[in-house]
């Protein structure tokens, strides 16, 4: 086995790159809630009012599921 063979050395970095790509994905919270907050901020709503609406929306969804 020749350790100076460039094809063997090139395979190792590819494996490292694949492992890094698999680890990149992360959870960033509920995207639907984030879009709703963004839309409300664009309309000029206060943070407290936005949270009130989100909590109300979540309570309605929980009652429908039960």
Task: Please characterize this protein's 3D structure.
The chain has a domain at 30-66. The protein is 76% helix and 0% strand. It has 3 helices and no strands. It has helices at residues 6-23, 31-43, 47-65. It starts with 5 loop residues before the first helix and ends with a helix.
How would you summarize this macromolecular structure in one to three sentences?
This protein is mainly alpha-helical and 66 residues long. It is built from three helices and no strands. Helix 2 runs antiparallel to helix 3 (47-65).
The number of strands is 0
What is the general shape? elongated
**Could you describe the largest sheet, including whether it forms a barrel?**
none
| Distance from first to last alpha carbon | 65 Å
Low-confidence stretches: none
Structure classification: mainly alpha
Topology (SSEs and partners):
Blueprint: H1 6-23, H2 31-43, H3 47-65
Biased composition (Basic residues): 23-44
Region (Disordered): 1-66
Biased composition (Polar residues): 1-10
List keywords for this structure.
3 helices; about 0% strand; about 70 residues; mainly alpha
């Amino acid at each position: 086995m020749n350790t100076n063979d460039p094809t063997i050395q090139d395979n190792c970095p590819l494996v490292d790159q694949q492992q890094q790509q698999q680890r990149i994905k992360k959870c960033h919270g509920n995207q639907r809630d984030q879009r709703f907050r963004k839309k409300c901020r664009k309309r000029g709503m206060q943070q407290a009012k936005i949270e009130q609406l989100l909590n109300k929306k979540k309570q309605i969804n929980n009652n429908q599921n039960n």
